[in-house]
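Researcher: Let's do a round of design. I'm pasting the structure tokens now; please hold your answer until I've finished.
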């Protein structure tokens, strides 16, 4: 019996996620298309693999017996394709969180001796990168990772970067040499999108009592900081090492007691693991140790839960 791998992949994702909606999002499909693929596989096999009820999705006895072999089939297929492609192209790594310049961290690694060739790309956000990984369109992603992650993906923390606050020269706190995050209460947090789409900024606002925020179109740092310069109550948060354009009337101030840390991670698909990923991960971990990227003191620093 010859199986259609697209239908097998649809079944495996639903079985691992235990949810049609989550599996459809991970695969970048509509739930209707996903359901049709699973139904086609069940028709081919002549058995029912999944049952749905008010609690979600569960495997039937036949589905539980079929799942391990189905997973191995996909892994063998993906390994074969990866082995062929490994000799033909660089490692594809999508980054996200563009205002925070994620390529700064990868750039030094990409030019190190023995590092695999990289082909950087730009993902819209973590869900978009996770979907690209599930499809096999990319090999890894680099940015801020937060749960929940789709089944089959894993990540490794690479860098914790101190965050500064930027304010207008007319802001009441502009003359400070350092600030505590709670001193920003009553100020307006400028964000490049709706706050509920920005996990780190949303958690910061919740933790330190920032009630006012203003979303502006994400047209890059220069327009964002120009708008900030005109707002005497506004502030922007940026990792300390992000290169910023020279905008008159904007001051950067370190945050202390605690210092917020922005977490950068590498994310990839566990089955199959890209052939050159271990080389990249080793180089990143080595750099993290040499440059003390993972220094963290809970008495001094703040990380969102599940960073």
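Researcher: That's everything. Go ahead.
Model: Designed sequence:
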């Amino acid at each position: 019996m010859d199986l259609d791998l697209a239908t097998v992949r649809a079944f495996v994702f639903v079985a691992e996620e235990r949810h049609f909606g989550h599996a459809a999002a991970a695969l970048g499909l509509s739930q209707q298309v996903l359901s049709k693929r699973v139904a086609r596989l069940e028709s081919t096999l002549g058995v029912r693999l999944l049952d749905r009820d008010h609690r979600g999705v569960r495997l039937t006895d036949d589905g539980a017996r079929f799942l391990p072999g189905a997973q191995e089939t996909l892994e063998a297929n993906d390994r074969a394709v990866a082995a062929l492609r490994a000799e033909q192209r660089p490692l594809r790594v999508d980054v996200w969180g563009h205002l925070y310049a994620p390529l700064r961290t990868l750039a030094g690694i990409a030019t190190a001796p023995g590092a695999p060739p990289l082909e950087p790309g730009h993902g819209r956000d973590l869900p978009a990168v996770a979907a690209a990984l599930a499809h096999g369109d990319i090999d890894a992603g680099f940015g801020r990772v937060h749960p929940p992650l789709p089944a089959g993906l894993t990540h490794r923390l690479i860098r914790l970067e101190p965050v500064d606050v930027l304010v207008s020269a007319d802001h009441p706190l502009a003359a400070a040499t350092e600030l505590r995050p709670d001193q920003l209460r009553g100020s307006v947090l400028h964000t490049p999108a709706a706050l509920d789409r920005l996990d780190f900024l949303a958690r910061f606002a919740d933790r330190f009592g920032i009630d006012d925020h203003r979303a502006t179109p994400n047209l890059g740092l220069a327009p964002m900081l120009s708008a900030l310069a005109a707002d005497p109550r506004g502030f922007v948060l940026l990792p300390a090492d992000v290169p910023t354009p020279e905008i008159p009337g904007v001051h950067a101030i370190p945050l202390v007691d605690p210092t917020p840390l922005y977490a950068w991670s590498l994310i990839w698909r566990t089955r199959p693991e890209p052939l050159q990923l271990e080389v990249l991960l080793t180089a990143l971990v080595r750099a993290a140790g040499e440059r003390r990227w993972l220094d963290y003191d809970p008495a001094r620093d703040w990380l969102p839960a599940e960073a």
